[in-house]
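My main concern about presentation is that the manuscript never shows what a single data entry looks like. For the editor and my fellow referees, an illustration may be useful. For illustration, here is how one protein appears when written out as sequence plus structure tokens:

***
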Amino acid sequence: MKILILGGDGYLGWPTSMYFSERGHQVIAIDNYCKRKIELDCDVSPLTHVRTLEERAKIWNELQSNKIEVKIGDLQNYRFVYDLLEDYKPDCIIHYAEQPSAPYSMRGRKEAVFTQQNNVIGNLNLLFAIKANCPQTHLIKLGTMGAYGTPNIDIEEGYLNINHNGRDDYLPFPKSPFSFYHLSKCADSDNILFACKSWGLRATDLNQGVVYGIETDQTKLDKKLNTSFHYDAIFGTIVNRFCVQATNNLPLTIYGTGGQNRTFLNIMDTLQCVEIAMNNPPKESECKIFNQFTEIFNLMDLAEIIQKEAKKFDLNVSIEKISNPRVEKEQHYYNPKNDSFLKLGLKKRKLEDFINTQINFLLKEDYKIKLDCIKPNIKWNKT
């Protein structure tokens, strides 16, 4: 297949590019380096040095017979998007190309507006370019479980059977997003669903949980192929942050009571899920919606798992509750469904089986952390 991977420089985009290239697909990785610019603006950086997309693709192409092609451009530039799709007419587009940080979107008006413009306009430009040049293309968009919020009912996969005042319907599941970032993902999902209905496009919307991990089979080929691993309060996901705190003998910091429930999956399961979605495309005018995760933990249980694993390395780390910078429920019902991927053959990895490996990896790495980057300094109610 000919696959465009939008956001190819990112934490997930680069491993996805290598994963599908190794499997013999023609891969074109696209990025505008937006995240790198935000890193400079916020004075944060990945744990270890990450080479540019062009540099990593060059290294990959020297190691592999199947090459990765790179294009640098912005989805907000419609001419760029139109020409890209007119030239390549891909079989599949994997869309990661969005500002990915909820805290950054809550930093202030400028950041909230940028997040909405970058994510929503870029996605709209993509939909119009698909319609104009390759309407049979399968669009796979990475969304977020955070768009659902924490409703007091089971979270179905995208759609919900409703009986109201004696009438039945099958409608998109209601959303209750956590941030301006999550709101942008809701708008993207609505626009994709509308485009599928109106123009006969084909899309799969993946509501993904919190991803953890740094290594994949492909990054292990050469350290220069590593992906962007963050531990900071802007881009760092909680498992990755806890592991960095543990390996530096720092307390595992929990926001609030730690009763918040979240969904999780290993980075290699992200790759597995995207491949399953690609191999099971929707029909014309159909928008499939999958909940993409493998496990559910509350934050206190998660911290205790990592604390337990850290002890195996003689790391006696404590757990510290700090003031919650977010506006969210800290004790709540949470029961999302993820049957679709399981029925299609997803082989789940367990967090407890990989934390040991991740801690061991971090202990062997030569790096220095910025302590002031870990503490959250963006408060939701001060935006």
User: Anything to note?
Assistant: The mean pLDDT is 97. The chain has 13 helices and 14 strands. Residues 2-376 form a domain with the Rossmann fold fold (CATH 3.40.50.720). The two ends are 44 Å apart (CA to CA).
